[in-house]
Write a structure and sequence with these properties.
By secondary structure, the protein is an alpha+beta fold. The chain contains 24 helices and 57 strands. Strands 35, 38, 39, 40, 41, 42, 43, 44 and 45 form a 9-stranded mixed β-sheet that branches. It has a 6-stranded mixed β-sheet with strand order 51-50-49-46-52-53, with helices on both faces. α5 runs antiparallel to α6 and α20 packs across α21. The protein is globular, with a radius of gyration of 35 Å. Forms a heterotrimer with an asymmetric homodimer of the regulatory subunit PAN3 to form the poly(A)-nuclease (PAN) deadenylation complex.
């Protein structure tokens, strides 16, 4: 037994990532001894091996097999893995459940025939070699936590959890034999003389293993029990208690002791002190009074129960806090799991590491016999290869077609929407026949039905090559006036999951216009966390929320990871896109960067590693999409409230007018009126009648449904309305069990909310469970308008005719709310996974109110108009809302655009903080490569042209597969991140000089710095070694966004990709792209910047490494040259000659001869790094390059239209896509 714990010099663990799932073998580590000598009978030991747990969470269950040399481990997705012997050789692995969202593995028990594994909703038994013996599911198994053998030994187990029912299971037969009412909710069970069960409130129940009645109970800890062990006549526990933090508030802290109880006398024994705060405790399996206690930090005490003042202290040096702690039945091995997904095996190598004393031998599979060697040559006969031989049975593939016939037919599908409308009687259900068939006819289910699935469009490059074609799909603005689509038994194509296809040109070649013929922008879905697209669309078309974000983002806020700023950037991009597809990569990065995202399960796993196709299928990792988006909704509303209060918004004119607020209102008062339901929660103890009160403010309302009513014969069931459900959710009257400070014990408490005010925006989580589905499927159940009255601390809600009557009477001040939109969960038949869409009434966000509702379906990048009936009709089988958003009706079609004229521009005229001290010391002689704008003389605005270029790095490489035709098919393009942004002046005395040259810190691991193409090395983006002043992505983005909203025109080469990686949309009137100017449609090739510089400017650029300032200067020179040709009337002839000259040199930018220089007027000029401040365009080392006569600036509208492709803007495409032809040109691009 390794009670002489030795701390390892290095923590041995396997790499925590694996493509095979489960657990994998680790490495052997070294240790050293120290500390006082161990108690008698305990030998020295150290760490002997380790394994790493795959996934985002640590192991949830560990156990040594008492009958074999196996260590068993389970994880959060229901996967079980076993490891053999001290080498921890992987032995078996299997799943106990198909759906990984059902919860983690909770506990192991062992039988001579196999291992019993407990999950949240399943009890599973398998042989040690892996095959399943039985798998039990029961409708009453909702939240299982623990199990124990009963008085019948290993042939029967008792299963309990955080539920009101316990199950008795016959292990031999694999069936539930009895259901027993649970006295309490249990989280831990251990078998000693009795079944010892720990409750969720810190209590221990001693349960009779025969009758399952509670014989004795102790309040072991005031708050909770974290760990417990029982063996023979003793129980040991560790847990926590409440600690007073201030008036009316308390928190739970671990207790500095371990409680001990004697089961023979049913009494408690003197607790064992443990100052480091006890987290885990185990009784030694062979030394009955010896206990091992551990803290979460790894400090361990070996204590004798009979002499608790004498301890043997050891410390385990782990990289993270301890998560699980187990000891083998032999007493010679101990295993520790930490929160960093590692498992360490401890023991004494000199004494021999054994998990069990009488372990059965482990059988491993026999190695496969190697195939006989075949000497393959031209003369070798084919008979040496060998062919399969079938004994007397003809293969099905060899049967003649005339003897094969169909056996039976698939049953007809019953429309779930029809079931919801049927009337119940004593003999069943009845209703009108809507099948279209007569009573004596049956449906021919064998008949093949034509698929109405949308065909994937051609790539844009294919359309350009093949010429114009007519789309085969229906115009998306065609409006049906019924809800025919929502009444179908399965989701129709318009609700289907969409997938972006990639050509060799990346995502830019995908025809998004095929899916969206409206003026409302969609969002791409190939990015992790794009499940939030639907919620972002609903928030964008809620005017008050959009106004809050825009008024905040226009301030001087430079707080990193500010979600409200990122929301403002996204909302502004969607408005400017005018129907083009956008993406929200930067917002999703910000959500990922917030520390709260992981505990709240807001992050999706990699979409491409868990993609579900219609053929292969797959499981949805993490919580269901509707649950995740509801969690995200609470998170965003909470952070919006906090961040809006952090700085005074630009303008509050709209809120002051609508809500009658003083001038100026405080940000806290604004958020209270806009988003927060103000209430006081009153808590009454049913025992002592003591009442306490606390704040019950909430930004999101969770609906509460009335319990199902028992049907009375020949009586009409009372109708439940949406208003009643909303009232229950707002007032939230419920009973619960809690601590009463007056009674000093847990009592039944009654909670009731007193509502003081409701906000201008009601955000509602529907919280639908199986029992409520038919309620939502009731036609017309969700109203488009509701009326709210708050009076006397109560919330009253009216809809339909009741609302109209109250408005006519005018007796009460009633506030009318309009339904702005909703996030809808679409559940597809297996194996497809569910996904989310948005239903939005865009009429309420238009500048002027239209005559009718304009409901639109936003299915990621597919946007189409639907009828009100289609939008508000739900299907219990596959279409149900997850999030609703109502807004006061008087705020409809209202907007405040003052932020555009009062935009804070201070970020353009100052550096945000000096370089780090080590950079100042090491690189004090470095010259800045940019000069800030002069606020007095250089104020950008409409008519200002600036040169722009960016460099980026790769976060993930592209994924390519070979299809069945032997062709390469791109699964995912290279994911790019912004690494450097450079903006130069395009006119004035300092023409060509940079005023922005930002290097961006990147939080994500960088796969490839693309140094050959970007000029960025690993040290450039590392704050410890970089010679550049690094800024955050938000700081660099805000500068470009500020220029954009000041009306500046951006000039560059291949700007589409720059804007795309930057995640910004620039309207076409504000873009001049030399890649488009110097392009002839007759030539499909797009000329690269380096080739144009050689042919047109006679200069050499991009030699060795790229430089964004140099590229922006080259694009500026090309634009000026273009203006010369246009003024002289020679442009049409010259562009033809340019292409011919490029073809003559093979579209190659390399000059003949040696030397690294630039071809100027005076000959070869040596190339330098980024020019220091003061350099001019076309000059280096005093030698002038090609000059351009001074002339007036071009008209912005003309320049923008010349330099644009198509009718849309730039940068509206998805995040982190592949390189485009306009960026790399003829010289190629990374990974091309």
């Amino acid at each position: 037994m390794p009670n002489d714990f030795r701390h390892p010099t290095t923590h041995p663990s396997a790499h925590p990532h694996s493509h095979h799932g489960g657990l994998h073998q680790g490495v052997v580590g070294q240790g050293y001894g120290g500390g006082p000598p161990p108690p008698p009978g305990i030998g020295g030991g150290g760490i002997v091996g380790g394994v790493g747990v795959v996934g985002l969470q640590p192991a949830t269950a560990l156990a040594f097999d008492p009958q074999a040399e196996l260590l068993w481990a389970g994880d959060w997705k229901g996967r079980v893995t076993s490891f053999a012997n001290r080498e921890l050789r992987r032995y078996t692995a299997f799943k106990i459940q198909i759906d990984p969202t059902e919860g983690p593995v909770q506990q192991f028990l062992f039988h001579e025939k196999g291992v019993i594994v407990l999950g949240r909703r399943v009890v599973h038994m398998a042989m040690r070699r892996g095959p399943v013996l039985w798998n039990i599911r029961h409708e009453g198994m909702k939240d299982l936590r623990c199990m124990s053998f009963t008085s019948k030994g290993a042939s029967e187990i008792l299963v309990a959890g955080w539920q009101d029912t316990m199950f008795v299971i016959d292990v031999v037969k694999g069936e539930v034999t009895k259901q027993v009412p649970a006295p309490h909710h249990y989280r831990i069970m251990k078998r000693g003389r009795y079944i010892c069960a720990a409750t969720e409130t810190g209590r221990i129940d001693i349960v009779n293993p025969t009758t399952f009645k509670v014989e004795k109970e102790w309040q072991a800890h005031q708050s909770y029990i974290n760990d417990m062990d029982a063996s023979g006549d003793y129980i040991v526990t560790c847990g926590g208690s409440y600690k007073q933090q201030g008036p009316g508030s308390s928190s739970r802290v671990p207790d500095p002791y371990v409680n001990v109880y004697d089961l023979r006398n049913m009494t408690s024994i003197q607790p064992m002190p443990f100052p480091p705060l006890a987290a885990y405790v185990r009784l030694h399996p062979r030394m009955l009074t010896t206990t091992i206690v551990s803290s979460q930090q790894g400090q361990m005490h070996v204590v004798d129960i009979m002499n608790p003042n004498t301890t043997n202290i050891r410390y385990a040096h782990l990289q993270a806090s301890i998560n699980l702690f187990e000891i083998a039945s032999s007493g010679r091995a101990l295993v520790i799991a930490d929160n960093d997904r590692n498992i360490a095996l401890w023991g004494s190598p000199s004494d021999g590491i054994q998990f069990t004393n009488i372990g059965a031998p482990i059988t491993f599979p026999e190695p496969e016999e190697p195939a006989p060697h075949v000497d393959w040559s031209v003369d070798a006969p084919l008979s040496t290869v060998g062919m399969p031989y079938y004994y007397g049975t003809m293969l099905f593939s060899a049967w003649p077609a005339d003897i094969i016939s169909d056996a039976g037919a698939p049953p007809p599908q019953v429309d779930p929407a029809l079931l919801a409308t049927l009337n119940k009687t004593e003999f069943g259900y009845f209703g009108p026949n809507k099948t279209g068939l007569r009573r004596n006819q049956i449906e021919d289910t064998r008949a093949s039905k034509a698929s109405n699935k949308l065909q994937a469009p051609k790539f844009l490059s294919e359309r350009a090559r093949d010429g114009p074609v007519t789309d085969s799909h229906v115009d998306q603005e065609t409006l049906a006036q019924d809800a025919a689509e929502s009444l179908k038994p399965e989701p129709p194509p318009i609700y289907g999951t969409l997938e972006i296809k990639y050509s060799r040109f990346g995502v830019d070649d995908f025809d998004f216009g095929f899916f969206n013929k409206t003026k409302y922008a969609g969002l791409e879905n190939q990015i992790p966390n794009s499940y939030a697209n639907s919620l972002l669309q609903v928030m964008n078309y809620t005017p008050l929320i959009r106004n809050m974000a825009l008024q905040h983002v226009a301030t001087s806020c430079v707080t990193d990871l500010c979600l409200l700023c990122e929301l403002g950037f996204v909302f502004d991009m969607l408005q400017k896109a005018d129907g083009l597809t956008c993406h929200a990569t930067n917002l999703f990065k910000t959500i990922t960067g917030r520390s709260e995202s992981q505990p709240l399960d807001l992050l999706e796993e990699d979409l491409h590693s868990h993609r579900v196709s219609s053929t292969t299928g797959g499981a949805q990792p993490g919580p269901a999409p509707h649950t995740r988006v509801q969690n995200l909704c609470r998170f965003l509303m909470d952070k919006t409230t906090v961040e809006y209060q952090s700085i005074q918004p630009i303008s509050t004119a709209l809120e002051r007018t609508l809500l009658k607020l003083p001038d100026p209102p405080s940000p806290k008062e604004l958020t209270s009126k806009l988003l927060t339901t103000s209430a006081v929660v009153r808590i009454n103890c049913t025992n002592c009648r003591t009442e306490t009160a606390r704040s019950g403010d909430a930004q999101v309302i969770d609906l509460i449904y009335p319990p199902p009513r028992t049907a009375i014969r020949n009586a009409r069931a009372p109708r439940t309305t949406f208003s009643q459900v909303l009232k229950m959710g707002v007032e939230k009257e419920l009973g619960t069990k809690g601590w009463c400070g007056n009674c000093k014990r847990y009592q039944s408490l009654q909670l009731r909310k007193t509502v003081e005010s409701v906000p201008a925006v009601l955000t509602i989580n529907t919280m639908i469970v199986q029992e409520n589905r038919k309620l939502w499927a009731t036609p017309g159940w969700l109203p488009e308008e509701i009326g709210v009255i708050v009076s006397g601390g109560q919330f009253f809600c009216y809809e339909g005719e009741d609302l109209r009557v109250h408005l006519q009477r005018g007796a009460h001040e009633i506030t009318v709310y309009s339904l702005m939109g909703m996030v809808v969960n679409i559940e597809h038949p297996p194996p497809q996974k569910p996904h989310l869409v948005a239903m939005v009434n865009v009429a309420h966000s238009e500048p002027t109110a239209p005559a009718e509702s304009k409901w639109h379906l936003f299915n990621d990048f597919s946007v189409r108009r639907v009828s009100s009936a289609e939008a508000l009709t739900f299907n219990a089988a596959w279409k149900l809302p997850s999030v609703l958003m109502y807004q006061i009706k008087q705020a409809n079609n209202k907007s405040n655009m003052e932020w555009r004229t009062r935009l804070d521009t201070s970020i353009l005229y100052k550096d945000l903080g000096p370089p780090p001290p080590q950079q100042q010391q090491q690189h004090s002689d470095e010259k800045k490569t940019y000069r800030l704008l002069d606020e007095a003389t250089e104020r950008p605005g409409p008519g200002t042209i600036v040169g722009l270029d960016t460099e980026y790095v790769s976060l993930k490489d592209q994924e390519i597969q070979i299809n069945s035709n032997g062709e390469k098919e791109m699964l995912r393009p290279m994911w790019l991140a912004l690494g450097r942004v450079s903006v130069i002046r395009a006119r004035g005395e300092r023409e060509g000089e940079a005023f922005i040259d930002d290097w961006i810190t990147i939080r994500e691991p960088v796969h490839d710095y693309l140094t050959q193409y970007s000029g960025i090395t690993a040290g450039d983006l590392d704050s410890r070694t970089s010679k550049h002043t690094l800024v955050t992505l938000k700081t660099a983005y805000r500068k470009i966004w500020t220029l954009l909203n000041l009306g500046v025109t951006f000039l560059g080469h291949g700007l589409r990709q720059d804007f795309r990686v930057m995640n910004i949309h620039v309207p076409r009137a504000q873009v001049i792209d030399t890649a488009v100017i110097y392009h002839l449609s007759a030539w499909r090739r797009v000329l690269s910047l380096s080739v144009l510089s050689r042919v047109v400017l006679k200069q050499k650029i991009q030699q060795g490494q790229h430089d964004s300032v140099e590229d922006a200067q080259a694009a500026l020179r090309l634009y000026k040259k273009y203006q010369e040709y246009v003024d002289a009337g020679l442009w049409e002839r010259e562009i033809e000659q340019i292409y011919l000259r490029c073809k003559a040199i093979g579209f190659n930018a390399k000059f003949e001869g040696s030397g690294d220089g630039i071809m100027g007027v005076g000959g070869m000029v040596k190339r330098t790094d980024t020019p220091p401040v003061g350099g001019a365009v076309g000059a280096a080392d005093g030698v002038a390059g090609p000059t351009t006569p001074v002339r007036k600036a071009a008209v912005l509208g003309t320049a923008g239209s010349v330099g644009m492709v198509g009718s849309g803007g730039f940068g509206s495409g998805g995040g982190g896509g592949a390189f485009t032809p306009t960026k790399g040109g003829s010289t190629g691009s990374p990974r091309r």
